[in-house]
Structure prediction request, 392 residues.
Amino acid sequence: MAFKTLDDMDLSGKVVLTRVDVNVPVEDGRVTDTTRIDRVVPTIRDLRDAGAKVVLLAHFGRPKGQVVPEMSLRQVVPALSEVFGTEVGFVDGGYGEAVSKMSEGDVLLFENLRFNPGEEKNDEGFAKRLASVGDVYCNDAFSAAHRAHASTEALARLLPAFAGRSMQAELEALEAALGSPKPPVAALVGGAKVSTKIELLSNLVTRVQHLIIGGGMANTFLAAQGADVKRSLCEHDLLDTAREIAAKAGAEGCTILLPRDVVVAEAFEANAPNRVVKVEDVPDGHMILDAGPDSVAHIRTVLDGCATLVWNGPLGAFEIAPFDAGTVDAARHAAELTRAGKLVSVAGGGDTVSALNRAGVADDFTYISTAGGAFLEWLEGKTLPGVAALEG
Prediction:
């Protein structure tokens, strides 16, 4: 994976069109979570230190090519200024005039690019309009890299392009996890449904030595092996698909780990009466809501023998106690191995981030991606247009 970074560029006095993801939650006109803005800070700091004129390109919501006032990026400016520690300008038109007034170190935000229908159509005309006011292009929005839009793909082909610090960190982490990882490699994949992760599972069994399957999708694999999962979430129409993935894993030398024991309950609610049973002994009227202690012990043992871990999705219904225990236990063990320098751990996906935060170990993993769709598509082995456009 060859791409230029900020360290490869002479940016003094240059106008740097910088694609960022500041699609943050807003309530009553105020930003309620600055996590995505925080991730951009290293890039903004280094660009300003290099003497660049920083123009931020971003989207907000899904206005579908129309001007929707409540989706204006103007409301994000105060949070940007506070987090960046400098005044951030804003312009909703007249790009050239606004940029011509910038001095080195200034930061300027353009209005929501998706107000223009050319953005999501990857229109070269719109990209050229943007390129006309810039000298170089920086992409620091991995979370939007799976979309071929004007500001993520076409623009990168019109100007000298490089990756920002957040994009660089993401790509280096993914390369360490699956591109050129240190073996043995384990992938832990959880979540509700096999149907949403068929491509992911099919790709991973060709890339890793151990595939740990949890959550509702584990029930589908168990049922495919003949287990009676009773009232558990299970996609019975995908049993053949589960068998095909298992057969492919066998041919590739990848071991699939499924639960040996499970935590079951009659109701899906917090602190519902529950018990641990073997997978073949799920009682009538019960549903599987978490991996059992023997299953988690097995996962811990496998991780002890691995050098790399990719994690996407929980082992059980982690949102409610006590069905978060399996996920929390496994996550804490992975974090312990990472802290000891024995494991490179890369995790991503919305539920995954929430689960690791719940376990109190998000800061202990080697890298956590907040990218969602882009992270999943990369794990599926797909080419991300925004990344491909940076390679050269």
Q: What stands out?
A: The first strand starts at residue 15 and ends at 19.
